[in-house]
Every structure is written in structure tokens, then in C-alpha cells.
Design a protein that fits this description.
Layout: E1 5-11, H1 16-25, E2 29-34, H2 39-44, E3 48-55, E4 60-61, E5 64-65, H3 70-73, E6 79-83, H4 94-108, H5 117-132, E7 136-140, H6 145-158, E8 162-168, H7 176-187, E9 191-196, H8 198-205, H9 211-232, E10 236-240, H10 245-250, E11 275-277, H11 285-294, H12 299-302, H13 322-341, E12 350-354, E13 360-364, E14 367-380, E15 388-389, H14 394-407, E16 411-416
Helix pairs in contact: 5-6, 5-11, 6-11, 13-14
Length: 429
């Protein structure tokens, strides 16, 4: 690695990620490590210029106050102790905090602001080539931001040694499978295996109304399809994953409980026959997007909205039927198009449609109808733990309503969900 590094040691703080991001915002690379890092582990880190001892409310573990290892104090590196208990050695004011951090990073540590995407990509290409050599690597390419950026990075590093498998389970948004094929097979010349598993998934989901059962069926079937395709290939030694830094942080540390489990952090089988390749595992989400842009991926892919793993399967409420699933897909496409035309794309965190499993009476062409409603949802959030509802102009809502009721078969009403989180959740299932 060519970049200088500041190490953040977790001594019970709940703001490790925030400090790491603030250091990176200064143009200097940073990583979070456990408080008891060994001398060997510390010396193995490249270009370390200083260490931040990041204390906080979880500093007492099993009745004992934890401290950095002896190796840290003996390292000879500049140290800065931070305590997030509201004490005066860590200013609450953002400008004062950044000034203190900048003084430590640049004046005391003499770090160079050389953390940028060009350097990151050059480093990762070198590391990937060193890890994979002349062997082959396999990637499940969902079309989401993380897997797409991993694919682009691996293509740059090892080209045709990468095989991507894109499984179309029928629960993607309008145009997404076609975009994956167009970008990776035709524009980036990747080895791409496209699997049309729509009927297979929808047959498995027939009559299943419970959202957790739907999730489990979709997840399990995806693994089966991917494994079947992998068995058809020969000489695959590596499995690439779109693991990113928040996945690792949220999966827990020595001083903090996990926020949520991530399938790609500690959830893989112990008898996994592949060696993992995870080139994005030290990037935050906004950095992943910046990496995708630098690699030449289209904006529609780089800035793709957050999308649940089960896809539209949890927005077609209750038991999934093909006609209601198409109503979700078509109405979602209209909503996204109109938000784009209104200049709201990129300004609203997430927006989508939901079609519930009930009907209501309506009128079309002077005749009675008995059709579904479409529910619109548009929310803003920083951390997805809480969310506010976007104040969409009423004229825009009227335009979207007119288009959906005119263009989407089987729909006669459009509703707007005004519920924040809490009490609602972002998704309906």
C-alpha cells in the first residue's frame, strides 16, 4: 500500500467508524483495529504514521477497564487519546474536532494526504494479482453496487480469469438484468454466465405469504443455483465477495455487540472450498460508489438505490403472484422515472412501490373495477435506524398516480405512505 495510515484502536467507543471516516475525509487512510493489537500485527500494517486510542462507554469489559497493548505504547508512534464521554479532551463542536484531528494527523504524525480512489485501485489491482496469480475466481454478480464494483475491479486486475454468475430470480427491478448483461458482457467483456431462474424461484414461492419464509426460500434457492453453476466450472480456486467495511464493523467487535449479522462476515460454511477475495472490505459505502465511478461504471449502477436482498419479493406483500409482481415492477419503474424527471434522484435516499394482497372497488370507463392499490414510499435516513418521509410535491404525486392507474394493469388506487421510522419500518415486510 502506498498510502500513509492512521490506526484507530477500539477501546470501547461507539464512534470508531465516525473517526475513521473523518480521518479519511482529511485525505489520509485509516483502519479500525482491536485495543489489544499485537506487536506483530501492528508491524504488519503498512505505513502507519500514528495511533488514535478511541475510548468510550464500553471501555469496561467484564468489570475490567481495557487499555491498549504494551506493543502500542512501545511502538514509538505518535498517540492521541480520545474519550467519547463528553469530556473536554474531545470537542463536541465539529470544526474544533476536525482541527484537533488535523493537527494530530498532519503536524504530529506527518502523514501525507494521499488517500484517493486512484491510489486505492492501483493498490488493490496489485494485491489481487498477487493473491490470485494465474488461477480463476468466481463472483455472484447481483447487479447491486458492491458486487458490481468488485466485478469491475477484478476485471481490471485479472480480466478473463474472473467468471461472473448473474442469477435472475424474477424479483429484480425493471431493466436490471438487461443492464448487468449489457455493462459486463458487452461493455466490459467479462466472462458472464446469465442464469434465467425466474420460473424456478416463483414456483418455490407460490402460496408463501410469511415474509421470513419468503426471505429464507429466496436466499437458500439462490445459493443452490449458484452452487450448481459453480460445479459446472473447472479450476475455480477463489470466491470474490462484495464485503464492505460497515459489514465488518456491524458484525461486532471485542467491545461492542453486533448490530446485525452479515452473511458475508462469519456466515460462510467452514468447509468452504474457495479462498475469499474481498477487495472492498475496507471501504465505506460512499467510497465504494466513488471507486465504481473511477472504474467507469455507469451512474445508474453506481448510484443504485438500496435494495433488499429478496428484491421485489418483499414489496409484493403476502403470497407472490406473477401479475401482482409485475404491477410492483411496472409501478416502481414509473415512480423512479418521475422522481428522476423532477430532479429528486439522488436527493431522496430511497423510494419504491408496494402492492398489497387485497383489492378495492374503483371505476374505469364508467365500469366497476375491483383492483389492487399501489403504495408509494419515499424516505430519507442517515443510518437506516430512523427515517423521515420525503415531502413530495402534491402535483408530482398526482402525476405519478395518473400514470400508474393508466399504465399498470390491475391497479385502481395509489396511496402515499406518510409513516416515519419509527413507528413504521422502511420496508413493509
Amino acid at each position: 500500500m502506498k498510502q500513509d495510515m492512521i490506526v484507530i484502536l477500539d477501546l470501547g467507543s461507539e464512534q470508531n467508524a465516525q473517526i475513521a471516516r473523518e480521518v479519511r475525509a482529511l485525505g489520509v487512510y485509516s483502519e479500525i483495529h482491536p485495543h489489544d493489537i499485537t506487536a506483530q500485527a501492528l508491524s504488519a500494517l503498512p505505513n502507519v504514521k500514528g495511533i488514535i486510542l478511541n475510548g468510550g462507554p464500553n471501555r469496561v469489559v467484564d468489570g475490567v477497564e481495557i487499555d491498549a497493548s504494551r506493543a502500542v505504547y512501545d511502538s514509538g508512534l505518535p498517540l492521541m487519546a480520545v474519550d467519547h464521554k463528553g469530556e473536554p479532551d474531545w470537542p463536541a463542536d465539529d470544526d474544533a474536532r476536525r482541527a484537533m484531528l488535523s493537527g494530530f494527523v498532519f503536524d504530529l504524525c506527518k502523514a501525507q494526504p494521499n488517500w484517493n480512489m486512484e491510489n486505492f485501485i492501483a493498490d488493490q489491482v496489485e494485491l489481487i494479482r498477487r493473491q490470485i496469480g494465474e488461477k480463476k475466481v468466481l463472483l455472484a454478480l447481483s447487479g447491486g453496487v458492491d458486487s458490481s464494483v468488485v466485478a469491475a475491479l477484478l476485471i481490471r486486475a485479472v480480466g478473463k480469469q474472473l467468471t461472473c454468475v448473474h442469477v435472475n430470480h424474477g424479483l429484480l427491478r425493471q431493466g436490471e438484468p438487461e443492464q448487468v448483461v449489457q455493462v459486463f458482457r458487452h461493455q466490459m467483456d467479462a466472462n458472464l454466465i446469465y442464469v434465467d431462474a425466474v420460473d424456478r424461484f416463483l414456483d418455490k414461492l407460490a402460496g408463501v405469504a410469511d415474509p421470513e419464509r419468503k426471505r429464507k426460500i429466496i436466499g437458500a434457492e439462490f445459493i443452490r443455483v449458484f452452487e450448481e453453476e459453480a460445479r459446472k466450472l473447472e479450476g475455480i480456486d477463489f470466491l470474490a465477495q462484495g464485503t464492505i467495511y460497515p459489514d465488518i464493523i456491524e458484525s461486532g467487535t471485542k467491545t461492542a455487540k453486533a448490530v446485525k449479522a452479515h452473511h458475508n462476515v462469519g456466515g460462510l460454511p467452514e468447509d468452504l472450498k474457495f479462498e475469499l477475495v474481498e477487495p472492498l472490505k475496507m471501504l465505506f459505502k460512499d467510497e465504494v460508489r466513488a471507486c465504481g465511478k473511477a472504474l467507469g461504471l455507469p451512474d445508474a449502477m453506481v448510484y443504485r438505490q438500496p435494495f433488499p436482498g429478496p428484491g421485489l419479493g418483499v414489496r409484493c406483500l403476502g403470497a407472490i403472484t406473477r401479475d401482482r409482481l409485475e404491477a410492483v415492477r411496472a409501478s416502481d419503474a414509473i415512480l423512479r422515472e418521475e422522481f428522476h424527471n423532477a430532479g429528486l434522484e439522488g436527493k431522496v435516499w430511497q423510494y419504491f412501490t408496494v402492492v398489497p394482497d387485497f383489492k378495492s372497488v374503483g371505476v374505469r370507463d364508467n365500469k366497476r373495477t375491483f383492483d389492487w392499490p399501489v403504495i408509494l414510499r419515499a424516505v430519507n435516513t442517515v443510518d437506516a435506524m430512523t427515517a423521515t418521509v420525503e415531502d413530495v410535491p402534491f402535483a408530482l404525486l398526482q402525476k405519478i398516480t395518473a400514470r400508474i392507474t393508466a399504465e399498470v394493469p390491475g391497479v385502481n388506487r395509489v396511496l402515499y405512505d406518510l409513516t416515519p421510522k419509527p413507528t413504521g419500518t422502511i420496508e413493509w415486510e
